[in-house]
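Request: Give me one sample?
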Amino acid sequence: MIGLVTALQVVLPVALLLWLGLFALPGAFGFAVQAAGVGAFLLALALVAQWAVVPWWLPRVYGAIWVGIVFWHVLRGHMGEWAVLPSGAMQWTGLLAAVVLLASGAWYATAAHRGRTLPPGAVVDIGNPFAKGAYLVGSGGSNALINAHVRTLDPTIARYEPWRGQSYAVDFFGLNTWGTRAEGLRPTAPEAYAIFGATLTAPCAGRIEATENAMPDFQVPEQDTVNRLGNHVLLRCGDALIVLAHMRQGSIEVTPGQKVAMGDPLGQVGNSGASTEPHLHVHAQRPAAEGAPPISGEPLAMRIEGRFLVRGDRLTGSEG
């Protein structure tokens, strides 16, 4: 997994930028297609990929380098005349590759952009669940390209039915000083992750419906696929149920039936349940039918501090 991330988010972008900078296609037309193809692909990668293993700001660096390369070629007059076409198999292969990059990049970037719009139906507005720290959205949005949870809307897959309430969930990683989610590429100790132990507060005023506090925090990448929520808090706010999952063992400070105000402490982020590494899972849903699994209710989209958060967005704790 780490090797694939490195290849897609470091090796491939650097190779494409070197190709654009050192092996520009001849003529304005060829270079324009090449530059557009590389740019579209980098944009799609920035919108679709999870930028947490490598720094979240790296796509911005790639974008700045792309702009610099394009301006350098334009200012140096390296493009030649507009009508000049490639000559030889290598240059024609390069032009074909540029067209493929442009088409695929445009398709994925457009699809990712569509996922930034709210899905149809009711929307729940909640506050910031974090007291302090900086956080990155790993999964969030209204389509499966940028939010894996949306797959649970598929009615043809029976095993998704007990989890359907999480379809518009948001997953958060923590960010350290360098802009990554952990010390190292994939440490096994949960304490090495920036989000582990982060304080969680009630994102709305309501009543605690249920809690779990005794599940163990696993070493990475172990997980419990049976008790999927792990340690969790179910908070009833009006007609909606807010679910905060994968919390730290023994950290939960509230009990079922207790009324809480927005900002009251709930517990800490951990690595319990079906969590391959420390993160916060939060979603909104209608309460499940009596006797049904607790997160099988109708899924609801959320705005946090007025924002519909999608993959790649950042959130700062309410106390700064």
User: Anything to note?
Assistant: The two ends are 33 Å apart (CA to CA). The mean pLDDT is 94. The chain has two domains: 2-114, 123-316. The chain has four helices and twelve strands.
